[in-house]
Amino acid sequence: MATYRVAVNMEFVRSADKSFEDGVRIAGELGYRWVEPMVHTGWELLSEVHYFHSFSMEEDTLLMREICERYGVGVASLSGHSPLMKPEAAVPRLTRAIVLADAVGTRFVNTDEMVKPDWMDDAQAHEVMRYTLQKAALVAERHGVYVCIEPHGVYTKTSEGLLRIVDLVPSPWIQVNWDTGNAYLAGVEDPYEALERAASRVFHVHAKDISLEHSERERGKVTGTPVGCACGDGVVDWERVLHILDPLDRELTLSVECGTIDEAERSLAYLDELVAVRR
């Protein structure tokens, strides 16, 4: 049977213009014991002036762990989203995120295919993604870190398209990060039936709920969204999601993706209650 831990993606402090360290501190104060930091290469201006939560991989690899330990919080996973169809960007970002993940003690780096260039046809897109993922898989195997691909783009909006990308490279280190909100918003297939088809490959979950207003405005028109509402406040059937995941024989992180500090607090209370009855 699956076991669960609840984390929070650092996007919850983006609208509050908080730094990485402030976000970790706030997460700990809310009661979270796990966070999912966003990472980037180079030096991002807003992060450098402490108005944005993303963490630069130019920093000492142990600095992230030091900050998290200061506030009693662990790193559950890294948000290493990289454009798989742009290997000149994705290969260095993904491979460095894998190395950082190992250094801070997490086994999961999350990504998606991101944007498909207009000039690239489907066959070329998948060959380019194969190259990117092969490079990532070699590093992932050395470090024992899973690269988890989520539904978010033009190909991964269906479970078939998602699994096709996951299977481009025959590696046990490339798996699925199931995003409940993105799968729902895409509106191409029933999100619960899609999860059932992908469940055996799910190693991480983005716990994203979608408000009724958001659903009515965008469902079927987009393939994903950065954040959702508080878990339990929206249209996602969480009992059904966990019922599908329960048979998996591994620990799963439910990483909350919401837009405000208040939503993060409510999400933790809601998911903690759902998880508690399964212990």
The rounded distance between the terminal residues' Cα atoms is: 10 Å
Radius of gyration: 17 Å
Total of domains: 1
Major sheet strand order: 5-2-1-11-10-9-8-7-6
Give the tally of β-strands: 11
The percent of residues in helical segments reads 40-55%
At CATH level 2, the architecture is: Alpha-Beta Barrel
How much of the sequence is in beta strands?
15-25%
Give the name of the CATH superfamily.
Divalent-metal-dependent TIM barrel enzymes
Secondary structure class reads: alpha/beta
How would you describe this structure to a colleague?
The chain is α/β, with parallel strands linked by helices and 279 residues long. It has one domain: TIM Barrel (Alpha-Beta Barrel), CATH 3.20.20.150. Helix content is 42%, strand content 16%. Strands 5-2-1-11-10-9-8-7-6 form a nine-stranded parallel beta sheet. A two-stranded parallel ribbon has the order 3-4. Helix 4 links the parallel strand 6 and strand 7. Helix 4 packs parallel to helix 5 and helix 6 runs parallel beside helix 8. The longest helix has 22 residues. The N and C termini lie close together (10 Å). The model has no long low-confidence stretch (mean pLDDT 97).
Short structural summary:
With 279 residues, the protein is α/β, with parallel strands linked by helices. It contains 11 helices and 11 strands.
Set out the fold topology.
Blueprint: E1 3-9, H1 20-30, E2 34-36, E3 39-40, H2 45-48, E4 55-56, H3 63-70, E5 74-75, E6 78-79, H4 87-104, E7 108-111, H5 122-143, E8 146-149, H6 159-166, E9 174-179, H7 180-186, H8 191-198, E10 202-207, H9 212-218, H10 238-245, E11 251-256, H11 261-276
Parallel strand pairs: 1-2, 1-11, 2-5, 3-4, 6-7, 7-8, 8-9, 9-10, 10-11
Helix pairs in contact: 4-5, 6-8
